[in-house]
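W.,

You were right to be curious about this one. When I first looked at the sequence I had no strong expectations either way, so I just let the prediction run and decided to look at it fresh. Below is the sequence, 427 residues in total, followed by the output.
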Amino acid sequence: MRPRTLDEVVGQDEILAPGKPLRETIERDLLQSIILWGPPGTGKTTLARIIADMTQAQFVPFSAVLAGIKEIKEVMAAAQLRRRSSRRRTIVFVDEIHRFNKAQQDAFLPRVESGDIVLIGATTENPSFEVNAALLSRSKVFVLQPLDAAGIETILRRALTDRDRGLGAMEITVTDEARAAIARFANGDARAALNLLEFAATAAPINPETMVRELDLPQLEQSIQRRALLYDKTGEEHYNLISALHKSMRNSDPDAAVYWIARMLEAGEDPLYIARRMIRFASEDIGNADPQALVVAVAAKDAAHFIGMPEGNNALAQAAIYLATAPKSNAVYMAYNDAAADAHREAAEPVPLHLRNAPTKLMKDLNYGKDYQYAHDEQDAIADMGCLPPSLADRKYYKPTERGFEKEIKRRLEGWDTIKKNRKKGE
């Protein structure tokens, strides 16, 4: 059922609709090097095959899984000779180009630069991370989107009626509910949808009265096993999902937070990675607005580590919901960043003498610890003593908010400032 023409391609109208630049260059056989980036089953290889049928150039398909540097160099040499002798272009299609290492990708560069080849790379990974920067700068990236449910259903209908390439000769009827369920299950992947349809159709029972196979929703559910969720634990989707969790908790949305946690855990993410990110969140986005948040996050990490998966998923979900519903403050995060900036920017002043310990006589003779004021000996347990280097004496790094427990911390700090000011007035 793979489309044979651009008009048969379902979806991807943003790049392949009539009048779009990519379609125009394909139809006019003026294609330049491109990278096709999209999830599985969205038409990357299909588009390359259509280009192969439409172009007058020599089309050479490559699989990054099977090819090595020797094969690349042989194809590059042949492309150079072909262009010198007949002026004919060579289009090199590299499926799963992200599987090539940087040295292998570098082998394409001279021939792309000289115009001997037009490179078409297909990848499910973010080209920014996986494709050589020099190669990427010489190519146009086109993003292929997952197909929506309506697009998947269009493909399924074609497969059910096409007698030559599809299942039309099987004489099978599929209920609307079953077809819609396949489209949902496919998760935007046309190949997965067709594979499931074929498997379920061949297993569907034959109605003895009509002698026609019938596939309904209950029968389909027997064919469907646990869906493999689209996820790459080291690539862009990994960072997209953890970002979604972090930002959902920051926006105090517990429903979204528990959903993104479930997405990651059900796809096989390391639970301790999620726990580490929530511990960071507890300090970065909640801080002292709810000091208990850090305790909960650490406890969730310990619980997930202690009992393992899948039982540990509830502890992580509990922590995510707690963090999402806690009062928010980034005052601790901002305080550290500002202090770190001063630590790098300002001269590294020595620790004031009154803050130094003096365990030896020499240190005492050098005035280590002189004029130190022991806070517990002072009224209200606070001394009129600066603890920052002189050049930073008036710096205020920590600025508590009015949210949660920080409101109480702010009240205390303001009270201590008042006490110090009153003492100075009394002097």
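Here's what jumped out at me. Residues 149-223 form a domain with the Helicase, Ruva Protein; domain 3 fold (CATH 1.10.8.60). And, maybe more interesting for your project: The two ends are 91 Å apart (CA to CA).

Coffee later to discuss?

I.
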